[in-house]
Amino acid sequence: MTRKTFHLVSLGCAKNTVDSDSMAQLLIADGYEPVENVRKAGVLIVNTCGFIGPAKEESLNTLKELAAQKRNGQLLIAAGCLTQRYGVHVAQQVPGIDGILGTRRWMDIVQLVQQLRARPHPEPLYHLPEAPTVGADERNALRASVAGASAYLKVADGCRRPCAFCAIPLIKGTAVSRPINTILNEARQLREMGVRELILIAQDTTDYGHDLGMKDGLAILLEQLVRAVPDMDWIRVMYAYPGYVTDRLIEVMASHRQILPYLDMPLQHAHPKTLYRMKRPSNIEWVHKTLAKMRAALPGLAIRTTFIVGYPGETEEEFQTLLDFIEEIRFDRVGAFQFSFEPGTASEALGDPIPTEVKQERWERLMERQQNISLQINQSYVGKTLDVLVEGYDKGLTIGRSYRDAPEIDGLVFIEGKAAIGQMVKVKITGGLAYDLTGVPVS
Prior knowledge:
Rossmann fold, 3 domains, five-stranded mixed β-barrel, 12 helices
């Protein structure tokens, strides 16, 4: 073990992964070396997730495992969303933690390590200052996470939406957009590094630029990105908010081939009464009209969404409305979560009255229904040719993704033969499974 080594575990979403990679950049710039072997690391860091109950449990268990293995001279730092909100609780639950770093000050990781090294701390050192300007003071870290030929690029942090079930504003603070020129420069840097797919992420990408006085900020950003990196193969937009997919945004997406005909828009439910209790946009007619506009303007549009089942007060009738809705809209991809009670959110007063077994049964029905829809949609691609970004090779098959597939959350394309990782290949689709496609390369 050497003091100038670190082992970093990143939990949760892609937005967290960007923060983890940014912390790693700062540590490396200060002379630290990342290591896979926990025993060889001088500093152990867990970037936690605190979004829902299971994520909190995973974060605590990971910290406990590392604390149990900790050797003399090693530092254990708990960082991220869970510690931002429950720092004292985390320290009490996991004896052996040396430092607590909130998600709003990830950029202070080197300073925290230096403080811990400077003098012994019998109690955990807390670094949880209020930071209303989260997203600023980034110490020149590249706010991206690169995996192969794809990169997540964070365009904003925090959220100003009032969703009753969500603790993100309590954790991250209000929405803060990153300067557009900084984003453009980072996109150029990523392209020079060989990135072929740029994935824009934020808590709400459609809110980009609101705090900067911009109207249609995401559309403006996309137009400038296309000019800044004209040879970027794919630009993908994640985390759109219902009601804020504007006509201008649709027009910009339809006008530039690099911007994928792919929309990730978490809707959370389909019954107006449930959405009202969630403090979410409840105008389902808007969803129908907007998706119809998008499908007309963007042939082959792939639509991903997310739903919550078992929200307080959800009746069987309300849940059936959700099932009918997915049959009618026919989403390409659907993610679903069972409601997780979060103290301090606006939904706290509603409690958690729906039994666990009812939530589980509804989740299973929803996913079974969507699996059939996904299978039918995937089978409609048989005989078509798609561009596929190659990500790996296993057991005689090349593995990649089409424009319809965001990394980690969507499906894959399995291709006969071998192609180079990072290459974009044309593939004729020969089979459609519930989540994935199979195909052969087109010479």
